[in-house]
Amino acid sequence: MVSVRLCASLIALFALAGCAGENYAPKAEPSMYRSMAQPGAQLDEAAAASMISGYRGNNGLPAVTLDPELTRMAQGQAAVMAQRDKLDHAVGKPFNVRLKAAGYDAKAAAENIGAGYHTLAEAFSGWRDSPPHRANMLLKGATRMGIAAVYTPKSKYKVYWAMIIADPDDRRN
Hints:
By secondary structure, the chain is of the alpha+beta class. The chain contains six helices and four strands; from the N terminus they run ααβααβααββ. A four-stranded mixed β-sheet has the order 1-3-4-2. It is globular. The protein starts with a helix and ends in a 5-residue tail after the last strand. The N terminus is likely disordered.
Protein backbone atom coordinates (compact mmCIF):
# COMPACT_ATOMS: atom_id res chain seq x y z
CA MET A 1 0.00 0.00 0.00
CA VAL A 2 2.79 2.43 0.91
CA SER A 3 4.72 1.61 -2.26
CA VAL A 4 1.59 2.18 -4.41
CA ARG A 5 1.10 5.63 -2.84
CA LEU A 6 4.81 6.42 -3.26
CA CYS A 7 4.69 5.42 -6.93
CA ALA A 8 1.55 7.49 -7.49
CA SER A 9 3.18 10.50 -5.82
CA LEU A 10 6.32 10.15 -7.93
CA ILE A 11 4.29 9.85 -11.12
CA ALA A 12 2.34 12.99 -10.23
CA LEU A 13 5.57 14.84 -9.39
CA PHE A 14 7.17 13.91 -12.73
CA ALA A 15 3.98 14.87 -14.58
CA LEU A 16 4.09 18.33 -12.97
CA ALA A 17 7.78 18.67 -13.75
CA GLY A 18 7.01 17.85 -17.38
CA CYS A 19 4.39 20.60 -17.49
CA ALA A 20 6.84 23.15 -16.18
CA GLY A 21 9.33 22.03 -18.80
CA GLU A 22 6.94 22.90 -21.64
CA ASN A 23 7.66 26.61 -21.10
CA TYR A 24 11.41 26.11 -20.74
CA ALA A 25 13.50 27.79 -23.40
CA PRO A 26 17.23 27.06 -23.37
CA LYS A 27 19.45 30.10 -23.02
CA ALA A 28 21.70 31.08 -25.89
CA GLU A 29 25.16 29.58 -25.94
CA PRO A 30 27.69 31.81 -24.14
CA SER A 31 29.65 33.93 -26.62
CA MET A 32 32.95 32.45 -25.46
CA TYR A 33 31.85 29.20 -27.15
CA ARG A 34 30.67 30.84 -30.38
CA SER A 35 32.58 29.48 -33.38
CA MET A 36 34.62 32.11 -35.14
CA ALA A 37 35.30 29.66 -37.99
CA GLN A 38 32.44 30.89 -40.14
CA PRO A 39 31.69 33.90 -42.33
CA GLY A 40 30.38 36.90 -40.43
CA ALA A 41 31.28 35.57 -36.97
CA GLN A 42 31.66 38.41 -34.48
CA LEU A 43 34.05 38.18 -31.55
CA ASP A 44 32.55 39.30 -28.24
CA GLU A 45 35.37 41.61 -27.18
CA ALA A 46 33.67 42.47 -23.89
CA ALA A 47 33.51 38.77 -22.99
CA ALA A 48 37.20 38.47 -23.84
CA ALA A 49 38.09 41.42 -21.59
CA SER A 50 35.96 39.92 -18.82
CA MET A 51 37.63 36.53 -19.20
CA ILE A 52 41.15 38.00 -19.17
CA SER A 53 40.24 40.30 -16.27
CA GLY A 54 38.86 37.41 -14.24
CA TYR A 55 42.02 35.41 -14.84
CA ARG A 56 44.17 38.39 -13.87
CA GLY A 57 42.03 38.98 -10.76
CA ASN A 58 42.50 35.34 -9.72
CA ASN A 59 46.23 36.03 -9.90
CA GLY A 60 46.12 39.25 -7.85
CA LEU A 61 46.37 41.61 -10.83
CA PRO A 62 44.15 44.49 -11.96
CA ALA A 63 41.43 44.09 -14.55
CA VAL A 64 41.86 45.23 -18.13
CA THR A 65 39.49 47.30 -20.21
CA LEU A 66 39.12 47.34 -23.96
CA ASP A 67 41.22 49.91 -25.74
CA PRO A 68 40.05 50.84 -29.27
CA GLU A 69 43.61 51.49 -30.48
CA LEU A 70 44.89 48.13 -29.18
CA THR A 71 41.86 46.43 -30.72
CA ARG A 72 42.61 48.09 -34.07
CA MET A 73 46.24 46.93 -33.85
CA ALA A 74 45.18 43.38 -32.91
CA GLN A 75 42.73 43.36 -35.83
CA GLY A 76 45.51 44.44 -38.18
CA GLN A 77 47.85 41.69 -36.99
CA ALA A 78 45.21 38.97 -37.14
CA ALA A 79 44.20 40.13 -40.63
CA VAL A 80 47.74 40.14 -42.05
CA MET A 81 48.42 36.68 -40.58
CA ALA A 82 45.17 35.41 -42.11
CA GLN A 83 45.95 37.04 -45.46
CA ARG A 84 49.41 35.46 -45.59
CA ASP A 85 48.29 32.27 -43.81
CA LYS A 86 51.25 32.55 -41.46
CA LEU A 87 51.33 32.56 -37.68
CA ASP A 88 54.12 34.98 -36.80
CA HIS A 89 54.48 38.09 -34.62
CA ALA A 90 56.56 39.72 -37.35
CA VAL A 91 54.54 38.66 -40.43
CA GLY A 92 53.83 42.31 -41.23
CA LYS A 93 56.20 44.19 -38.99
CA PRO A 94 57.62 43.27 -35.57
CA PHE A 95 55.36 44.01 -32.60
CA ASN A 96 57.50 46.82 -31.17
CA VAL A 97 57.65 48.52 -34.60
CA ARG A 98 53.85 48.28 -34.98
CA LEU A 99 53.33 49.66 -31.47
CA LYS A 100 55.63 52.62 -32.14
CA ALA A 101 54.14 53.28 -35.61
CA ALA A 102 50.67 53.47 -34.03
CA GLY A 103 51.98 56.06 -31.57
CA TYR A 104 50.85 53.95 -28.63
CA ASP A 105 52.86 54.96 -25.55
CA ALA A 106 53.14 52.10 -23.10
CA LYS A 107 55.30 51.38 -20.10
CA ALA A 108 54.93 47.72 -21.06
CA ALA A 109 53.03 45.81 -23.72
CA ALA A 110 52.79 42.22 -24.93
CA GLU A 111 51.11 40.36 -27.75
CA ASN A 112 49.61 36.88 -27.94
CA ILE A 113 48.81 35.36 -31.31
CA GLY A 114 47.21 32.08 -32.20
CA ALA A 115 45.72 30.09 -35.05
CA GLY A 116 43.34 27.19 -35.23
CA TYR A 117 41.35 28.04 -32.12
CA HIS A 118 37.74 28.26 -33.24
CA THR A 119 36.31 29.82 -30.07
CA LEU A 120 37.36 32.45 -27.57
CA ALA A 121 37.37 29.76 -24.87
CA GLU A 122 39.83 27.66 -26.92
CA ALA A 123 42.12 30.64 -27.58
CA PHE A 124 42.09 31.63 -23.90
CA SER A 125 42.81 28.05 -22.79
CA GLY A 126 45.64 27.70 -25.29
CA TRP A 127 47.25 30.91 -24.09
CA ARG A 128 46.70 30.05 -20.43
CA ASP A 129 48.37 26.67 -20.88
CA SER A 130 51.46 28.13 -22.60
CA PRO A 131 53.96 29.70 -20.15
CA PRO A 132 55.02 32.64 -22.39
CA HIS A 133 51.42 33.44 -23.38
CA ARG A 134 50.24 33.10 -19.77
CA ALA A 135 52.99 35.54 -18.71
CA ASN A 136 51.70 38.02 -21.28
CA MET A 137 48.11 37.76 -20.00
CA LEU A 138 49.50 38.33 -16.49
CA LEU A 139 51.61 41.35 -17.48
CA LYS A 140 52.03 43.38 -14.30
CA GLY A 141 50.47 46.82 -14.41
CA ALA A 142 48.48 46.17 -17.57
CA THR A 143 45.09 47.85 -17.61
CA ARG A 144 44.20 47.87 -21.33
CA MET A 145 43.76 45.25 -24.01
CA GLY A 146 42.64 44.71 -27.57
CA ILE A 147 41.71 41.42 -29.21
CA ALA A 148 40.68 40.21 -32.65
CA ALA A 149 39.87 37.02 -34.52
CA VAL A 150 39.88 36.78 -38.32
CA TYR A 151 38.25 33.96 -40.25
CA THR A 152 39.99 32.73 -43.38
CA PRO A 153 38.29 29.78 -45.12
CA LYS A 154 41.30 28.91 -47.29
CA SER A 155 43.57 28.20 -44.32
CA LYS A 156 43.82 24.91 -42.48
CA TYR A 157 43.63 26.99 -39.29
CA LYS A 158 40.40 28.81 -40.28
CA VAL A 159 40.86 31.47 -37.55
CA TYR A 160 43.79 33.70 -36.63
CA TRP A 161 43.90 35.50 -33.28
CA ALA A 162 45.80 38.48 -31.88
CA MET A 163 45.58 39.97 -28.40
CA ILE A 164 47.55 42.96 -27.18
CA ILE A 165 47.75 43.85 -23.52
CA ALA A 166 49.39 47.02 -22.23
CA ASP A 167 50.26 49.24 -19.31
CA PRO A 168 49.76 52.62 -21.00
CA ASP A 169 52.11 55.47 -20.18
CA ASP A 170 49.40 57.99 -19.31
CA ARG A 171 51.98 60.68 -18.56
CA ARG A 172 52.91 60.80 -22.24
CA ASN A 173 49.37 60.91 -23.68
